[in-house]
Structures are given as structure tokens and as C-alpha cells.
Amino acid sequence: MLKQDYYNNFFEIGQQKINFSFFQLGLPDDDPVYTLKNVMEELDFSGLLACYSDKGRTGFNPIMLYAVVTYANMRGVRAVDRIVDLCQRDLAFIWLTKGQKPQRDVFYDFKGKKLTGEVLDELNYQFMRRLEKEGLISLKELYIDGTKIEANANRYTFIWRGSLNYHLAGLLDTIDALYTKYNTFLLENGYGPKYNLGNARMFVIEGMDKVRKVIEENRKRKLTKHKKISNNTIIEIDYCSPLEIRKLQKNLMQIAQGEDIGFVYGKGKHKPEIQKLYEELEECGTRLMEYKECFEIMGKSRNSYSKTDMEATFMRMKEDHMLNGQLKPAYNVQIAVENYFIVHGYVSNDRTDYHTLIPVLEKHRKTFGNTLEAVTADSGYCSEKNLLYLKENGIRSYIKLQEHEKRKTRAYKEDIGKYYTMTYAIFEDERYYIC
């Protein structure tokens, strides 16, 4: 064979000449793709199929797409573009897709709209039942731990409850001054009796007295160079507060129409006093509604959120390369494991692990019934509320106490004020400590 023939054989129309079917190459008998398909045959995909309509053109098989995404994750591949490339080049992926070539928009739509958390949980729990039948897990013990995962949000887009409270106090002072200005305007011009309008009373928002006390205390501390107190009082702004401002604006508009006073706009034009008051009230009402929305997004369980990812909370991360304790938008991800299998996953915006234990255990109870007998976790989950929950539900607790290491010290053992070190006597099934 001439050298040119070798060249033509390899590069002919961009393809190699192969004298056997591509699928005859086969896959290794122990390839995980076979195990995946065997497991999937026993799963019920009705929840996933319910996300699709029976009308219109038939698209790619959603069960096949689920198999491709799952197998890609088994191989450590998560990028959609990489999955698309593997569906065209990798034999295992081609075997799963049966030669079809789904593009990136198919996977983005599938992962973003169809493969919801509810669908994933349902399929995962079916798999857990399969593992239980195989004797690999018992669903009677859980080992729980968590970590903080940085959110895909800008770092400097934080909204703090303390900052909102501080600026809200200033806004309410401004609104109070406008109420006084409004009443003075009616009194001086005689519009009250003429239009049957009474004096307006400033509305009250519960909790602002405490906020103002903290603000005054922090001003004193600033002068003495002491550390400030956190001003995280939970404030709720009801709809009545902005509506009260709208009523004043409505009254001013009624006066303007009755007195034939026109509002002017544009550069170089002199605005009448009633228009200035109207616009000041409108600006304050808009700001008050913005604060109301911020408090509603934040809720009662956290003191911060990110503008670009409103579900993320600013937390201290384990990785602190600058050693300055910088806060970053993140989520608290909890994993419950048994025999190396992940039974539950729970994502929270709580900064600590205290409030994440009970939701995970409730999730287990609702899914598998009252099968849980023991829970193991570190001291981050040790709280009175959690320990009482475990006791009331008859679950053995293997949670490390927060004072476990401290109790080993000599100073702690010799402290007679601790009831752990006191001698006691038992009388009629009750324990009495002796000081």
C-alpha cells in the first residue's frame, strides 16, 4: 500500500473506514451503566412523566435523559456541554441514548424545569427502599453532618436586618415630620373644615422603641470606642402603614382639585407647596414599601440575604483565605447517611446546625414512618430543643455535648458550682444534690 493510500484511508471525508458495526465494539461487562439501567428498571417514573404533556410533538425520552444525567454524575461530569459531547463520543452514553444526540437546550430544560426537587426525592426514596430490601441499609440509624456551600451570588449584595432597622427609624422620623407638616398645612389654610378633613395621626410600628434604644446605645458606644450592639429586632410592617400615607396623598389631591391648583413638572418651574408635600409623602411611602418587602424576604429566622440570590444567607465559611472573617452568601447543606449511602439531603439558609436536625428527622418520619432508632451527630446539633425532640420520639441520641471537651479539664471538675461535680442522694426516685 502506498503512503498516499494510508493518508486517504485515515482522512477520507473526515471519517475512518470501519468494516464492523460501531455497537459491536461492546462495553465491559462490569461497566456501571448496566447496573444503573438494572436499578432504574425497578423505579416508578410516574412523577417525572407527570411533568410532561401528552399533547404536541414527542421529544426525547425523559427516562433516558434521567439515565444520562445520573450516569454523568456517577462519572463526575456535571457541565451540560460536556454531557452533550459525551453523548456523541462516549460509547456508554451512546448506548444509553441509543444513538440519539440531545443538545444543550434539552438538558437545560430537563434539569431546570422537569427534574424538580420533589421528583428527585421520590426517586431517591424508591432507591432507598431497594437498598433496604437488599439489606444494605436499615433506615433505623442516621449519621448527620453539614457543610456550608457558597451561593452563586455576588459577594457585596448584602441586606442586613440591623441596617434596615437603622434606616427605617430615620424614615419614620421623616414621616412623622411630614405628618406634622400636613396638619400645619391644613390648619394654616383652613382646608380641614372646608373639606371635612381632620388631623392625621402618625401610625405606630411595634418594636421600633427597642430599635431606637439600641441606636442611641450604639451612638454612646461609638464615642467611647466600644463594640456596637447588634440591632436585629424583628420588625413587621403591615399594609395599613403605607395605606395611611396614601390617604394623606388622596386628601392633598382632593384639595388641589378643589382649589384648582395644578401640579407642574419640568426644569425651572416652581412647584406649589401642596405638590412638594405630596411628592415627599409619595417618596416616603415607596421607601416604606421597599423595607416591608425586605423584611418579608428575610423572614424571622435570619438577619441577612443577598440581592442577587434572596434565599442565600451571609455566613462565615470554613475557607477564609484572607483571615478576616469575611461573610459570604451561602447555604447550609445537611446530609444524612447510613452505611455510606446518602439517605436524605436538606438545604437550609440557617447559619448554624441547631435548627436543621428536626427538619431532617421529620423528613425521614414522613417518608419511611417511625423507623428511626438512633441519631449520631456532632456538637453543632446539641441543643435543648433537639434533645427533647429525640427523647419524646424515643430516638437514641449519640450527639456530642458542647461541653464534652471542657468537662475533661481539671478546672471544670473542681468547680463545685457545677451540678455534674456535686454529690447527690436519691430519695423516692428523685435526685437531690448536696452542696
Automatic annotation (TrEMBL):
GO terms for molecular function: DNA binding; transposase activity. Residues 27-110 form the Transposase InsH N-terminal domain. GO terms for biological process: DNA transposition. Residues 305-412 form the Transposase IS4-like domain. PANTHER family: TRANSPOSASE, TRANSPOSASE DDE DOMAIN-CONTAINING PROTEIN. This is Uncharacterized protein. It comes from [Clostridium] citroniae WAL-19142. The lineage of its organism: Bacteria, Bacillati, Bacillota, Clostridia, Lachnospirales.
